[in-house]
């Protein structure tokens, strides 16, 4: 009766199906094993290198660990030798699963990957592990050699660099959004103060003409109506471009005003129960305002919705926004790169928030946003 491969047990556990990978058969045709101790001079060399080194036999019983391995794993060689590797040391695999690591080792004779080891004193080590077959003078496999390089400091530096890069990107997003808002505010003021004033003057002139030229009355009347429409459109556009001054108004009032200005046909139901504006800094109010404005514009332009629902509330720790419509929906995998959605995601990510979009063709759309208030 064939003996179950202990190395396979280490990776898969004690119960191994007949179809499990047979590492011993993959490594050797003879089944030769050896527990011979290493020569003293090799012990000396191995004890003076910076990597942890572990030798096992083909049954994965530890036959040698060097001093660096003792330091990393917090164990003594005399307590480790003779024991199964998996009874002494257990890793969390970062790159491959245990099964994948075994398969690669079986197929190529070598596996390399990152593992995490937590010592009994709770100190965590991130290690770059390299596992190969140890062979005797006849090139027959007699066990496994594992060398483990401590990359904890390197990984911490890399993680710090990743976080720094992420924070830099967020800061760039903040600057870009602030620049956009400044440009919008300037454009809105120009529209209101300059073009609107010119049109208002023309309107007055036409009104004067209406009083004096009966024969041109119909033409002048049309001009007057057109100009009034232009003034109305510019007023609405200015309102959409310029951010409200929340020191002078409330988020609740501005949301309602946005609904009234943007939405003409479809009813929008606004639920602000649980909203405490006193807990919201102005930059978060501005972000929520712009997200609602952007999503309502998306609904009007694309959704063909009959109605929409907006729910907004907050706690001392976070603000929660949900905007839902019953429109035609869309494939989120294909539409996430749209300008409107991208703007929303950028605004949310700038404040370490989360945005989720749920939609499918014919099923409407639901946008859910959570923004933490700490350090906002």
| Count of structural domains | 3
Radius of gyration (Å):
35 Å
Secondary-structure element order, as H and E? HHHEEHHHEHEEEHHHEHEEHHEE
Instruction: Walk across the major sheet and give the strand order.
Output: 2-1-6-5-4-3
CATH-defined fold name of the largest domain: Beta-Lactamase
**What amount of the residues lies in strands?**
15-25%
Mean pLDDT metric: 79
CATH class of the largest domain: Alpha Beta
SS-derived structural category: alpha+beta
Percentage of residues in helical conformation: 40-55%
- The number of helices is 13
Q: For this structure, what is the CATH homologous superfamily of the largest domain?
A: PAS domain
EC number: 2.7.13.3
GO cellular component, one term: membrane
Domain PAC: 111-163
Coiled coil: 177-240
List its salient traits.
single chain, 376 residues, Beta-Lactamase, six-stranded antiparallel beta sheet, five-stranded mixed beta sheet, 13 helices, 20% strand, elongated, disordered N terminus, Oxygen sensor histidine kinase NreB, Sig_transdc_His_kin_sub3_dim/P
Describe this entry's structure for a reader:
48% of the residues lie in helices and 20% in strands. It has 376 residues and is an alpha+beta fold. The protein folds into three domains: 6-150, PAS domain (Beta-Lactamase), CATH 3.30.450; 172-242; 246-376, Heat Shock Protein 90, CATH 3.30.565. The strands form two sheets. Strands 2-1-6-5-4-3 form a six-stranded antiparallel β-sheet. Strand 7 (268-271), helix 11 (282-303) and strand 8 (308-314) form a beta-alpha-beta unit. The longest helix is centred in the middle third of the chain and has 61 residues, at 152-212.
């Amino acid at each position: 009766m064939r003996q179950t491969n202990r190395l396979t047990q280490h990776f898969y556990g004690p119960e191994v199906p007949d179809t499990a990978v047979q590492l011993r058969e993959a490594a050797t045709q003879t089944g030769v094993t050896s527990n011979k101790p290493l020569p003293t001079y090799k012990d000396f060399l191995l004890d003076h290198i910076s990597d942890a080194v572990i030798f096992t036999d083909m049954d994965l019983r530890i036959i040698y660990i060097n001093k660096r391995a003792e330091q990393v794993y917090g164990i003594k060689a005399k307590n480790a030798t003779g024991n199964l590797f998996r009874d002494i040391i257990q890793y969390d695999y970062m790159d491959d699963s245990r099964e994948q690591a075994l398969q690669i080792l079986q197929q190529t004779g070598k596996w390399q990957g990152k593992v995490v080891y937590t010592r009994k004193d709770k100190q965590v080590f991130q290690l770059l592990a390299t596992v190969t077959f140890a062979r005797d003078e006849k090139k027959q496999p007699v066990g496994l050699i594992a060398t483990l390089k401590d990359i904890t400091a390197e990984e911490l530096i890399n993680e710090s660099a990743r976080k720094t890069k992420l924070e830099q990107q967020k800061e760039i997003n903040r600057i870009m959004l602030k620049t956009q808002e400044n440009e919008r505010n300037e454009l809105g003021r120009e529209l209101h103060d300059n073009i609107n004033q010119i049109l208002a003057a023309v309107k007055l002139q036409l009104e004067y003409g209406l009083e004096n030229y009966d024969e041109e009355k119909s033409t002048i009347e049309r001009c007057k109506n057109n100009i009034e429409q232009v003034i109305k459109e510019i007023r609405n556009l200015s309102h959409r471009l310029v951010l409200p001054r929340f020191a002078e108004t409330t988020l609740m009032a501005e949301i309602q005003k946005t609904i009234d200005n943007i939405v003409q046909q479809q009813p929008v139901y606004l639920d602000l129960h649980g909203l405490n504006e006193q807990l919201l800094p102005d930059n978060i109010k501005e972000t929520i305002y712009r997200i609602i404005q952007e999503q309502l514009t998306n609904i009007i332009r694309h959704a063909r919705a009959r109605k929409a629902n907006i729910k907004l509330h907050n706690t001392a720790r976070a603000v929660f926004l949900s905007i839902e419509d019953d429109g035609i929906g869309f494939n989120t995998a294909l539409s996430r790169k749209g300008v409107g959605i991208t703007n929303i995601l950028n605004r949310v990510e700038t404040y370490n928030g989360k945005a989720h979009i749920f939609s499918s063709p014919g099923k409407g759309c639901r946008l859910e946003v959570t923004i933490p208030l700490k350090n906002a």
